[in-house]
């Protein structure tokens, strides 16, 4: 059974129907349209849904499929960036009449920036993830090799978008997912969403728009508090792009994520940092702080110093088996898959500060 989300629909002035998905309760958080979008597919992806659910604990999260994508009208006339901004205006007018927070991920970031600049009275806060203001064809200093790469992607997208074994699909997923592409389950889910999200023709239209975006001038017009995230090793949009956003948007704050994935952080420490920082920024409560026993804190503190289980056992006068047990309990309490993640999270939560 799929997780619960309410589906609503609104219509643009040119009679395109936009599909919206609503989860949670509380102040509105609206995700600007982004491509590879299919709100029903997202609900079937456990990792993606876990992040959606975490944000929905404190907010009414509204996501929508852009025109030509997902459950929205698929057969659409030619469109450009301004059309996509107008579609966001339609969604905001229909679904978020009061001032709301905007979440812009990837190419949704410049959409959110443009809307916030043009409608400052409608946006309470701005959260941008792996975004940019200028793209390959609009930035004056794009290196020649990146321009050639962009042209090659455009030349092959129609033939390769829906073909699972095409070189385009392999390169695109590798850049989109980073090391997560090595997980066959995660790769299959994103690949399936990619296939179902739009036709090759619409995918090419969106890519051409994305490669030509330029909202640098509008960054200076943003008046609301802004939080900017970027994966340190993003292979699709470099972290330098978000650092430029922070320089161009007045008062914006930057948070680097230890990830190489371009999609919304969902797993491991990067996902937890994103959720915690976003909820705190938007005024919601942070997720409950995990609890560790004094012994678990002691052991993690020594693990953080590079000690093995045997060395920890000798240091504390315990058996290696007892140390292993405490480490396993700490991993469970912290929701981490391995010791490195556990040490990072325990340190970030301040759980190791009082270890003696």
UniProtKB/TrEMBL annotation:
SUPFAM superfamilies, per database record: alpha/beta-Hydrolases, C-terminal effector domain of the bipartite response regulators
GO MF, any single term: hydrolase activity
PROSITE patterns registered for this protein in UniProt: HTH_LUXR_2 (PS50043)
Limits of the HTH luxR-type domain: 285-350
The UniProt record lists the keyword Hydrolase: yes
Entry keyword set: Hydrolase
PANTHER family registered for this protein in UniProt: AB HYDROLASE-1 DOMAIN-CONTAINING PROTEIN, HYDROLASE, ALPHA/BETA FOLD FAMILY PROTEIN
Protein name: Alpha/beta fold hydrolase
């Amino acid at each position: 059974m799929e997780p619960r989300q309410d589906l609503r629909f609104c219509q643009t002035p040119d009679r395109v129907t936009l599909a919206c998905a609503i989860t949670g309760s509380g102040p509105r958080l609206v995700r600007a349209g982004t491509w590879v979008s299919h709100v029903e597919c997202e609900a079937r992806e456990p990792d993606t849904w876990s992040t959606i659910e975490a944000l929905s604990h404190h907010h009414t999260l509204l996501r929508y499929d852009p025109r030509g994508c997902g459950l929205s009208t698929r057969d659409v006339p030619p469109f450009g960036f301004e059309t996509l901004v107008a579609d966001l205006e339609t969604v905001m007018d229909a679904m978020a009449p009061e001032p709301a927070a905007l979440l812009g991920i990837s190419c949704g970031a410049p959409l959110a920036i443009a809307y916030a600049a043009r409608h400052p009275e409608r946006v309470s806060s701005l959260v941008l993830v792996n975004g940019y203001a200028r793209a390959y064809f609009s930035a004056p200093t794009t290196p020649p090799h990146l321009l050639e790469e962009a042209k090659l992607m455009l030349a092959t997208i129609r033939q390769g978008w829906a073909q699972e074994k095409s070189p385009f699909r392999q390169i695109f997923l590798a850049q989109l997912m980073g090391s997560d592409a090595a997980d066959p389950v995660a790769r299959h889910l994103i690949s399936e969403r990619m296939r179902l999200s739009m036709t090759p023709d619409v995918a090419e239209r969106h890519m051409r728009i994305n490669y030509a975006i330029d909202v640098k001038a509008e960054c200076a017009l943003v008046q609301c508090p802004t939080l900017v995230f970027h994966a340190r090793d993003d292979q699709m949009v470099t972290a330098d792009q978000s650092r430029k956003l922070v320089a161009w948007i007045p008062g914006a704050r930057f948070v680097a994520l230890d990830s190489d994935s371009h999609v919304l952080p969902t797993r491991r420490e990067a996902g937890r940092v994103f959720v915690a920082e976003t909820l705190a920024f938007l005024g919601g409560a942070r997720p409950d702080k995990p609890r560790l026993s004094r012994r678990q804190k002691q052991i993690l503190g020594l693990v953080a110093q590079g000690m093995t289980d045997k060395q920890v056992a000798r240091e504390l006068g315990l058996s290696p088996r007892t140390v292993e047990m405490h480490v396993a309990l700490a991993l469970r309490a912290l929701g981490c898959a391995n010791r490195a993640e556990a040490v990072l999270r325990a340190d970030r939560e301040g759980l190791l500060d009082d270890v003696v």
